[in-house]
Amino acid sequence: MAKKGGTNHIKSLAAPEFFNISRKEETYVARPLPGRHNLYSVAPLEDSIKKLGYSDNYSDAAKVIKSGKIKVNGKTIKEKKFPIGLNDVISIGKANYLVSIDKFGHISFNETKAPEHFIYKVVGKDKFKGNKIRVRLNSGTVIDAGENAGKINPGDSVKIDSNNKIIEVIKMKKGAKCTVVSGVHVATSGSIEDIKPGNIHTGKVVIIKDDKGEIFETLEKNIITMS
């Protein structure tokens, strides 16, 4: 049993809330491969396939994935532990599912049309070979900023295609539409009313009016701009 509790699996009692694991029914859950998103906002692909109803157990989910019928963000994935996180799109045949988060902080899936683009938050920006600018996204992906280098700052979002080419920069600014992905108001959507400086420990504070017209504050790090 010690082997199962090692690096390949996580005890369900210790699994992040995002996994939304039944701790009574599952003793262990596969640990997602590193590299995309982070452990607290990611789930293994096999678990997502099971939750979507395409298998009754993890063994069958692994077979479905191995068959090459699953795409993530337009690319065929055959690794059962492939990390799935916010704003990824899982495609199975003609069905497409946008990965979201519910009000309890759990992974959720919303059926959507065939993906043409994907939106991720910029969490870092630096220079690399040839004085070029690259940005690091909340998905863990690092991409060349290209001609958008001067427009992008950490906190903004980018709309990218399946080849990681930037289609649009979505600024973190007053009037932007956003979704809360962490904190007390998780899964709430609205528009940014104002952005306050905050401090070195918390970062910027954002004032948001939700879709019901209610006003609340949250930290900038808790939201992602969507349009």
TrEMBL record:
It comes from Candidatus Mancarchaeum acidiphilum. Residues 43-106 form the RNA-binding S4 domain. The keyword NADP does not apply. Keywords: Ribonucleoprotein, Ribosomal protein, RNA-binding. One of its GO terms (molecular function) is structural constituent of ribosome. GO terms for biological process: translation. One of its GO terms (cellular component) is cytosolic small ribosomal subunit. This is 30S ribosomal protein S4e. The keyword Ribosomal protein applies. Transmembrane segments: none annotated. PANTHER family: 30S/40S RIBOSOMAL PROTEIN S4, SMALL RIBOSOMAL SUBUNIT PROTEIN ES4.
